[in-house]
Write a structure and sequence with these properties.
The protein has 294 residues and is α+β, with helices and mostly antiparallel strands. It is 61% helix and 7% strand. Strand 1 and strand 2 form a beta hairpin. Helix 1 runs antiparallel to helix 10 and helix 4 crosses helix 10.
Length: 294
């Protein structure tokens, strides 16, 4: 026979209290993590932009005059700073606009006050954590896309970059390779249409190729004709693992978060078991209350 409804209810209450306490600990852990991540993310993204302009596309960068270069770099800093400043998950303001043109500090030194409901149960606590991680992933993709688009508009990156590369999505990451010794950059080959008339009529056609530069240690089996239409593209692709790896402090703070998240998942498993146990206890009680001897 299952335990009484009162006994299971007490267990659930204890788990809810533990969830609330753990939610407070996770909030503090993310506060520290975001403070370190903001600075590292800004440094890494600017460094990657520097490499794109000076090593990957130096000729195109030098075509800009001094004022154009200064304006480009200023805009790059503003775009990156805005995304970083908006990285804090605004769960208290659903549907808020994260694309504000206002100048941002680029600092993530505090977390917004979270609704207590998110910490009320282990299930909602895990969901809260997943929302934060999704926002981090989205922000890195947003930085990559906005920087790539900005460099393309400045005619530094080619105009015919395939959409998956420009947006830094998973398809591009699977097809490309990290640029040797430079984190957060993607190197990929695309095939260009050699028929200019057809290209003008139908638009620039490109397709992702599996080939990679020999300097990256990959094998390429292409003849001279192929080389005449294969172009290597470099783009920004911010990866959280590479950003964290560059800073020992941020990496340590991430490990602390992971430990707390493991605890929240254990609480959720126990909570779901207790919920099921409560249903059984309630069903047994309902059976007894509905049973009458003839």
């Amino acid at each position: 026979m299952a335990r009484s409804i009162e006994q299971v209810g007490q267990d659930l209450h204890h788990l809810q209290s533990a969830s609330s306490k753990l939610g407070t600990e996770l909030t503090a852990a993310y506060q520290s993590y975001f403070a370190g991540l903001a600075l590292t993310l800004k440094q890494q993204s600017i460094q990657s932009c520097y490499h794109l302009c000076t090593t990957c596309y130096p000729d195109d960068f030098l075509k800009l005059n001094y004022n154009q270069r200064a304006q480009l770099l200023k805009t790059l800093q503003r775009v990156i700073g805005n995304v970083i400043a908006n990285l804090v998950v605004q769960l208290n303001s659903p549907g808020g606009n994260n694309d504000s043109d206002d100048e941002q500090t680029g600092e993530l030194t505090s977390m917004p006050i979270m609704p207590i409901d998110w910490f009320a149960t282990p299930t909602s606590l895990v969901t809260w954590h997943q929302n934060i991680e999704s926002e981090i992933t989205h922000s890195l993709k947003e930085i990559s896309y906005k920087v790539n688009l900005l460099l393309q508009q400045a005619r530094i990156m080619p105009a015919n970059i395939p959409k998956p590369i420009l947006e830094a999505n998973n398809e591009a990451d699977r097809q490309g390779e990290s640029t040797a010794n430079i984190p957060n950059l993607l190197s990929i080959f695309i095939e260009q249409d050699l028929n200019e008339e057809q290209s003008a009529a139908e638009g620039s056609k490109t397709s992702l190729q599996n080939g990679t530069d020999r300097s990256l240690g990959m094998n390429i089996d292409l003849d001279e004709e192929d080389f005449s239409r294969i172009v290597q593209i470099h783009s920004l692709y911010m990866r959280l693992t590479e950003v964290e790896f560059s800073d020992v402090n941020v990496l340590s703070l991430r490990k602390n978060i992971e430990k707390l998240v493991d605890k929240s998942k254990m609480l959720r498993r126990e909570y779901l078991q207790k919920q099921q146990e409560l249903k059984i206890a309630e069903a047994e009680s309902a059976w007894r209350n509905s049973w009458f001897e003839d």
